[in-house]
């Protein structure tokens, strides 16, 4: 199951949250059905904002949906696919030692017989080496207890489990079916589409069902002047058992890799995850004679008893009308609605290691956009002009309701807020926002050679104070198609030079101007005491809009009848007056204050090289190579402040912004280096010395990214291959830190370090080469107590992103079938890099927010494979 998706376009220009907006028919939207997509284009950074407002400050993904087309008449398309998901990368675990501590067994006497057992209370794997010893396992004890403790328990062999953690994960299977019907004439068009997806995830007890219904229609008057149009979509999703992400009790990856016993067999865990009396059998017993879970649930109990459900209903679309006043002048009015309701339910069952609970979350939002537009398009002599002027009224209302039991559940298996031992906690939030806008843009062309594009937009935002809630931002771009003047140069097909400037203003979230009260109460009021408290964030009545100025220059050239070409872009931008929360002294009665501050610059290049190396009658090869690099710098923060914390990782590091350095640096303790040799200094215990305080351990963002796509076509066969790569950037891995500390990862047992110790490369305090043998377990535990830099990994990778192969049957309208295509695909097929032994770096750093670089319990990397059939009638 896909858990999250992130996208970054060009720059990182905000100390606080930022996002890219998805526009479907110029309407913001996220839940998009791939079967309804006709085309995708990208508008980058602030240059998109002049057209689509400050919400597009970080870029726009423009999606055009399918509709009936004149001349195609009546058509039916059926598309069906089956896909499979399989975990293809898990951390490498050591397979030499089992659970426990100190390398020895504990002893228990049962009915006069003494048994060896691994300390089940300890959730680490510093137990004895596997040598075929006989021991009493948690599974033996659980079966004996189930049998009423009759006789003596059975025993097991101390060895590598036959069914390790990779056997915990299942093969995910998905079925997607889409049918669409379209009809078009010279005056009207209509398309109706329905898509159903049914997915069983690769995690036990995970599934998702989606239904998408779309209708698009147009109707034109007989004189071709009046046109009405609509595009409406209903989206429904139901999911069960999504993976918890990060360091949490219900993330099985934390219990498999960061903590645990390495001798555990997954089949045994599954056999006894729930007992006849409704309790669980956990390997992590409080004592050999006490089955109460100490730290960890049985992982199957986690997946089948402590899962979450969620559902979403969404309706979005638009309806509009346009009228051609003159052949070159048209007026258009469009009303767009996006409405969704999310429901989320989480539970921890009675008899779990943690306190039982039930939680409900409801989110509801609607956004209404009313837009009017006057469009003018005229060509005369050597000139052409395309101009638009209009306005938009946006209103958004967001409601959030949260409820959670308090003190546990009174009755097992009854998940209701009324089943709370103590009065349940309730919280609700409502936010309203409105933006009124007027805008205009014009493109003036001369002889298909010179073009000037200019735009001007003014927004009035409800989230900014009076006097500062209006912000005007222009853009201008000039382009010179010099190939029009060089038509006698046979090898030059196309050449264009462009220069651009854009400024954009940006507002903030609601209710940051005036102080507000927060209302907390229990559901069972008046039993619970309702009350109001003052928010700990001090508002600011003098906030100003953020401002970004960007400049861009680009060159596009195609050669040899488009057999070879490239596009190169250089850009720079500056964002100031950012609206950020600043920590203040608790003596003020507040935790933070909202201010305008900060200056971030971005500078980067993008390059794309495309070509057709081979083009014959039956064979064609097209290739495209893309590269992108962005360098950012924090020029200013708050006066007197040189460091701004963005977020904190559990236990060790922070991600922050340092004045004068790149945005998004990892702050933690580093190695101490010898000034003369540059070598790491080793302590008297043979371990790495650590700095006294936090220092910069590198930026989380890459130096450059890119991709290489190749498409091959031979007669009716086609093959496409996509490779992605990223160079530079780092991330802090909580899993690596705890996996070493607890003796779970492969390195914790490599090279006989548990028996012989390890001599770390470096020098002692006097500069002489290190010869001290460090204890192996002490070395691994030092990943938590020593330099945090030990758990900072490189994000570099090369990935085989996707391979597609297909065959299109040459039917030529035979048997009333217009076309038939069969295809197969594979995605995320392999990854290579310096630090990919345990993790797929992309699964760690991909994030839809502006804070990245922390791995707290990454989900497993998954490869997907599938087959597709597409039939058109």
How does this model look, in words?
This is TonB-dependent receptor SusC. Pfam families: TonB_dep_Rec_b-barrel (PF00593). It comes from termite gut metagenome. GO terms for molecular function: siderophore uptake transmembrane transporter activity. InterPro entries: Beta-barrel_TonB (IPR000531), Beta-barrel_TonB_sf (IPR036942), Plug_dom_sf (IPR037066), TonB-dep_OMP_SusC/RagA (IPR023996), TonB-dep_OMP_SusC/RagA_CS (IPR023997), TonB-dep_rcpt-like (IPR039426). The chain is mostly beta strands. The chain has a domain at 96-159 and 245-299. Helix content is 7%, strand content 51%. The protein has 9 helices and 41 strands. The strands form 7 sheets. It has a 22-stranded antiparallel barrel. A 4-stranded antiparallel β-sheet has the order 30-31-32-33, with no helix packed on it. A 3-stranded mixed β-sheet has the order 1-3-2, with no helix packed on it. A hairpin with a 3-residue loop joins β28 and β29. α6 (734-741) packs antiparallel against α8. It is globular and about 105 Å long. Mean pLDDT is 91; it is low at 2-6.
């Amino acid at each position: 199951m896909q858990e999250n998706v992130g996208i970054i376009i060009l720059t990182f220009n905000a100390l606080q949250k930022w996002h890219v907006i998805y526009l479907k028919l110029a309407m913001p939207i996220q839940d998009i059905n791939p079967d309804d997509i006709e085309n995708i284009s990208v508008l980058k950074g602030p240059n998109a904002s002049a057209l689509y407002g400050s919400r597009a400050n970080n870029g726009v993904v423009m999606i055009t949906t399918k509709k009936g087309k004149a001349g195609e008449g009546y058509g039916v398309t059926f598309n069906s696919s089956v896909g499979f998901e399989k975990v293809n990368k898990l951390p490498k675990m050591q397979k030499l030692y089992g659970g426990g501590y100190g390398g020895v067994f504990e002893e228990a006497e049962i009915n006069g017989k003494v048994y060896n057992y691994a300390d089940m209370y300890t959730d680490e794997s510093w137990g004895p080496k596997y040598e075929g010893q006989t021991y009493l396992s948690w599974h033996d004890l659980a079966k004996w207890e189930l049998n009423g403790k009759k006789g003596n328990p059975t025993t097991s062999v101390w060895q590598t489990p036959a069914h390790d953690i990779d056997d915990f994960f299942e093969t995910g299977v998905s079925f997607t079916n889409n049918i669409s019907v379209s009809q078009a004439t010279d005056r009207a068009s209509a398309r109706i589409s329905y898509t159903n997806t049914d997915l069983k995830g690769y995690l036990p007890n995970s599934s998702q069902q989606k239904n998408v219904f779309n209708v698009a229609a147009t109707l034109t008057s007989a004189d071709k002047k009046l046109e009405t149009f609509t595009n409406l979509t209903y989206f429904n999703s139901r999911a069960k058992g999504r993976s918890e992400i990060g360091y949490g009790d219900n993330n099985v990856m934390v219990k498999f890799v960061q903590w645990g016993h390495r001798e555990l067999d997954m089949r045994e865990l599954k056999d006894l995850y729930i007992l006849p009396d409704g309790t669980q059998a956990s390997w992590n017993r409080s004592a050999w004679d006490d089955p109460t879970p100490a730290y960890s649930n049985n992982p199957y109990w986690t997946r089948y008893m402590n899962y979450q459900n969620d559902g979403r209903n969404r309706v979005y679309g638009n309806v509009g009308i346009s009228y051609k006043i003159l052949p070159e002048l048209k007026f258009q009015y469009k009303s767009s609605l996006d409405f969704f309701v999310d429901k989320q339910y989480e539970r921890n069952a009675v008899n779990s290691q943690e306190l039982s609970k039930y939680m409900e979350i409801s989110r509801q939002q609607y956004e209404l956009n009313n837009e009017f537009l006057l469009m003018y398009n005229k060509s005369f002599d050597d000139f052409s002009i395309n101009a638009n002027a209009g306005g938009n009224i946006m209103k958004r209302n967001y409601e959030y309701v949260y409820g959670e039991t308090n003190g546990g559940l009174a009755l097992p298996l009854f998940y209701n807020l009324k089943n709370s031992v103590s009065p349940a906690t309730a919280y609700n939030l409502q936010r309203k926002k409105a933006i009124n806008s007027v805008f205009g843009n014009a493109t003036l062309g001369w002889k298909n050679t010179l073009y000037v594009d200019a735009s001007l937009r003014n927004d009035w935002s409800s989230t900014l104070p009076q006097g500062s809630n209006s912000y005007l931002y222009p853009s201008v771009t000039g382009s010179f198609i010099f190939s029009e003047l060089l038509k006698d140069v046979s090898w030059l097909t196309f050449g264009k030079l462009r220069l651009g400037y854009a400024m954009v203003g940006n507002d903030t979230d609601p209710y940051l101007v005036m102080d507000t009260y927060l209302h907390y109460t229990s559901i069972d009021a008046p039993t619970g005491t309702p009350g109001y408290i003052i928010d700990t964030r001090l508002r600011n009545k003098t906030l100003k809009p953020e401002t970004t100025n960007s400049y861009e220059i680009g060159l596009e050239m195609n050669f040899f009848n488009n057999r070879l070409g490239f596009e190169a872009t250089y850009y720079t931008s500056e964002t100031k007056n950012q609206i950020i929360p600043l920590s203040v002294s608790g003596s003020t009665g507040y935790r933070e204050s909202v201010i305008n501050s900060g200056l971030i610059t971005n500078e980067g290049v993008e390059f794309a090289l495309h070509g057709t190396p081979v083009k014959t009658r039956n064979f064609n090869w097209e290739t495209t190579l893309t590269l992108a690099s962005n360098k950012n710098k924090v020029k200013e923060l708050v006066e007197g402040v040189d460091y701004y914390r963005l977020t904190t990782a559990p236990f060790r590091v922070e991600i922050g912004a340092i004045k004068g350095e790149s945005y998004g640096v990892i702050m933690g303790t580093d190695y101490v280096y010898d000034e003369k040799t540059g070598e790491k200094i080793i302590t008297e215990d043979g371990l790495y010395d650590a700095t006294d305080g936090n220092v910069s351990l590198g930026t989380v963002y890459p130096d450059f990214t890119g991709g290489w796509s190749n498409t091959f076509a031979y007669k009716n066969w086609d093959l496409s291959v996509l490779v992605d790569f990223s160079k530079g950037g780092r991330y802090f891995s909580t899993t690596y830190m705890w996996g070493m500390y607890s003796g779970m990862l492969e390195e914790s047992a490599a090279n006989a370090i548990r028996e012989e110790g390890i001599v770390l490369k470096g020098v002692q305090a006097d500069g002489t080469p290190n010869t001290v043998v460090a204890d192996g377990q002490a070395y691994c535990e030092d990943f938590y107590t020593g330099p945090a830099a030990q758990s900072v990994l490189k994000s570099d990778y090369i990935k085989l992103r996707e391979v597609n192969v297909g065959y299109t049957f040459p039917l030529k309208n035979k048997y009333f079938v217009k076309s038939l295509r069969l295809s197969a695909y594979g995605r995320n097929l392999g990854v290579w890099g310096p630090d990919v032994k345990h993790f797929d770096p992309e699964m760690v750093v991909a994030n839809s927010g502006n804070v990245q670089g922390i791995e707290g319990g990454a989900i497993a990397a998954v490869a997907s494979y599938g087959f597709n059939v597409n039939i058109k009638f």
